[in-house]
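Continuing the batch. This is chain 6 of the set; chains 1 through 5 are on the previous pages. Same settings as before, nothing changed between runs. Recording input and output for traceability.
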Amino acid sequence: MSKKSFTAAKESRRRPPPSSGRPTRSQSEQRHNQLLARALDEFLEHGYELATIDAIRTSISMTKRTVYSLYEDKKMLFRAAVKRAIDEWTMPVDTLRALETDDLEATLTAIARVRVDYSISPIGLKLQRIINAESYRFPDMSRLMYEQGAVPTIRFLSDLLERHAKHGKFVVDDPEVLAQSFMSLLVGGPTRGIVLGRTIDMQDIEKRIRINIKLFLNGIRSR
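Output for chain 6:
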């Protein structure tokens, strides 16, 4: 080996191995979301009391230092996991606006269908079950789910019913109460059993929606 080659090889051995570098912002966000998604599943599967941060972080190969740099305790991690799920599940009001037509019955039927679909989606069922189980411990999360998930739809329905009442075909004395009743009858009713574990096929849900829409409209129709 020449003296020049020997020196180059020696210098190469002295250099530290190339570093993988710090994760990019996108990679960090992806890992953070992975943590929150796994935490939600862990809390749902074992309950808040039995779920542990160690079990959550170990399942996704995340260091304790990384987790605790983000959340100082299990309560903060629970709230963050549930809030992320609520944000993901929340229906944009534009989705409701796109369903509106001049036919109130058709519009209400479309809204009921899409709201039921949201409620029985995988993330919707997870949220309802974990909120039902832990609402006594985290009432703020229960309020957030209602305010962010239900209130925008109730406001949209209130405005929709009030506008149709101006034509004289329907009587809408308290649009907000009627909108809440609609959500309870058309959405809460068909999905409650599914949340509790009952098997209800989509044909049965569709039948319930049609019957309850007629019941609702007959209740507010002018006489």
